[in-house]
Design a protein that fits this description.
Blueprint lengths: L2 H12 L4 H8 L3 H9 L6 H10 L12 H7 L2 H8 L3 H7 L9 H6 L3 E7 L5 E8 L4 E2 L2 E2 L4 E4 L15 E6 L8 E6 L2 E10 L3 E7 L3 E7 L4 E10 L3
Parallel strand pairs: 1-5
Antiparallel strand pairs: 1-2, 3-4, 5-6, 6-11, 7-8, 7-11, 8-9, 9-10
Length: about 230
Amino acid sequence: MSRLGDLLHLERTRRKMSAKAVAKLAGVSEKYLLEVEQGTRIIQDDQARRILSKMGMEQQTDAMFTLEDIAVTVDLQSAVTKERLPKQRKEAEDPKPRAEGSIWLDALKGVLQHVPIYNAVMKETGSRLLPVNQGKIEGVSAEKVFYFMAPDNRMRGYRVHQGDLVLIVPTQSVEDGKIMLLDTEFGKQLYMIKVLPRYQLLLQRFDSQSESEVAAMADVRIIGKAVRLEAEL
């Protein structure tokens, strides 16, 4: 199935509506609707939204999110599979009846955040959607985290290549053995940090060979800690 097909099927079955009834309301053929649900026909976001509206779904989605954004965030396949279980088995697994409404709309509320992407001079170049848990991402306020785009290959020995996105959690605390984003005279740069005695740090990079420098902890301006790497294949 396609994700939008899953979404349409899930809402239709939750509302106990036949494909024929929904097709008639939406002004499409039953065959077309079933092909969309089965993933053998492509449907555009606005068409899917119109069909969902005809089913009686309230337009509660944020304008900045497409249905595809929502579908990617919610595990629709699991939800659809559960909807198709025999009634007796579903009741045994989930004895508490769910409230009427859309599970994907419920799941959307407060769980998506546009996280900005910054380059080496901290200019915003785009954003990525990330799930939010109780207003937080990676344990900190969702408004504070950001992606840093690696400007070069000087960290590829640590699997960070030019153009890769590194999710940064703001902190001013040094963590031994972590990749951290530092504010340097040459701009924002990533380093592997090793804590040394006497309040010193070993700042490490690795391109074709390992490079390092020792700096006093008091002289190092820490912006944040790298917690996630996203790379294009």
